[in-house]
Amino acid sequence: MSAPDLGADPGPSEARIGEAVAHPNLALVKYWGKRDRSLNLPATGSISISMGAFTTRTWVKFGDERGRDEVIVNGEAADGGTATRINDFLDLVRTEAGLDGKRALVRSDNDFPTAAGLASSSSAFAALGLAACEAAGLNPTTSELSLLSRRGSGSAARSIFGGYVEMRLGNRSDGQDAVAAPLAPSEHWDLRIVIAVTDPRPKRVGSTEGMELTRKTSPYYPAWVETSSDDLRRARDAVKNRDLSALGEVAEHSALKMHACALASQPGLLYWRGGTVEAMHAVREMRSAGHAAWFTVDAGPHVKVLCGPDDVEALEGRLRCIPGVSDVLVSDVGAAARLIDPPSEA
Ligand code: PMV
């Protein structure tokens, strides 16, 4: 892997510890498909909202010895696939900082269910990128951090920033312009995300695998890519004008279009459970009854509802009554990823 340019000259680092927190984000205009797999470049831009109620906290220390990184996620040693993904990601930081081969200790904890489809990879790689750069003595800009985090997970590029964020498609083959940027801070617009958790089991087809299958086999994939710029324009305007029905409509459209495209893959990708469909109907019924609420669904079975603060209670009550909905969580709009200063000692 070629290392991204992380700006500053690292210089000697004594402590070699960094600690950071980041919030997961929810895509309102979805990213689904890559134009370059090795650099993790998206085939479309995307727009998200940060979920401030959930946090990933990650601590990184680079030692002097060589060997495999030690990665503990939520108190348990990371399994092979996760450990390799984190090791490859840390190699980008090591290369940039001249720490080649130096072993890292990584501890990462989520205060929300990791496998519950709440976009934990977005906050995971944002917090890891920030903590690892700090530990390595690098001093990247937020754009450089967004570029770095994208290499771990496309959605993580957006979690470097808080509030409302746009991930740009970019057109350079080296990916240096495929970077996220803030559209508006959290204070711009006080919205809520109400999440109907429908199935606690981890998803069977991860997003990278699902995206590749869709790109290669769905007859609707070209249309999905072609129509995204219009969705982005509508969502950008809606955020700027604080127009909830415009934002909700485009969010629902983008989610259904992404799933229609994935469903048409061979074999078809079906992320929904019964509770997912019931919750989507319930949101539309609530809307007919006068509540300003719109749903979106990611590569998993949970339904995420975008609404204003006044509609949270009614939505929560309605969603809790749906058979197949096991829990309902609520988030406000979150802040940017940030360092913990000073970091914990061990
Ligand atoms: O960042 P990844 O590789 O986990 O992919 C994210 C895919 C979706 O969550 C479905 C959409 C998005 O834009 O976050």
What does this entry look like structurally?
There is one protein chain. The chain has helices at about 80-95, 120-135, 140-150, 155-160, 205-215, 220-225, 230-240, 245-265, 275-290, 310-320, and strands spanning about 15-20, 25-30, 35, 40, 45-50, 55-65, 70-75, 75, 100-110, 165, 180-185, 190-195, 295, 305, 325-330, 340. The two termini are about 30 Å apart. With about 350 residues, it is an alpha+beta fold. Strand 3 (about 35) and strand 4 (about 40) form a beta hairpin. The chain has ten helices and 16 strands. (3R)-3-hydroxy-3-methyl-5-(phosphonooxy)pentanoic acid binds near residues 27, 46, 154 and 207. (3R)-3-hydroxy-3-methyl-5-(phosphonooxy)pentanoic acid binds near residues 30, 31, 32, 121 and 207.
Which structural traits does this protein have?
346 residues; alpha+beta; six-stranded mixed beta sheet; four-stranded antiparallel beta sheet; 36% helix; binds (3R)-3-hydroxy-3-methyl-5-(phosphonooxy)pentanoic acid
CA radius of gyration: 20 Å
**Sheet bearing the most strands, described?**
6 strands, mixed
| SSE pattern | EEEEEEEEHEHHHEEEHHHHHEEHEE
| Helix-strand category | alpha+beta
List the strand order in the largest sheet.
8-7-9-6-1-16
Q: If you average the pLDDT, what whole number results?
A: 94
Q: Termini separation (Å)?
A: 30 Å
Sum up the overall morphology in one term.
globular
Work out the strand percent: 15-25%
Number of strands: 16
Q: Please count the helical segments.
A: 10
Helix content: 25-40%
Say what oligomer this is. single chain
Topology (elements, then pairings):
Elements: E1 17-22, E2 25-29, E3 34-36, E4 41-42, E5 46-50, E6 56-66, E7 70-73, E8 76-77, H1 80-97, E9 102-110, H2 120-135, H3 142-152, H4 156-159, E10 164-167, E11 180-184, E12 192-197, H5 207-217, H6 221-226, H7 228-240, H8 244-263, H9 274-288, E13 293-296, E14 303-307, H10 312-320, E15 327-331, E16 338-339
Parallel strand pairs: 7-9
Antiparallel strand pairs: 1-6, 1-16, 2-5, 3-4, 5-10, 6-9, 7-8, 10-11, 12-14, 12-15, 13-14
The protein binds (3R)-3-hydroxy-3-methyl-5-(phosphonooxy)pentanoic acid.
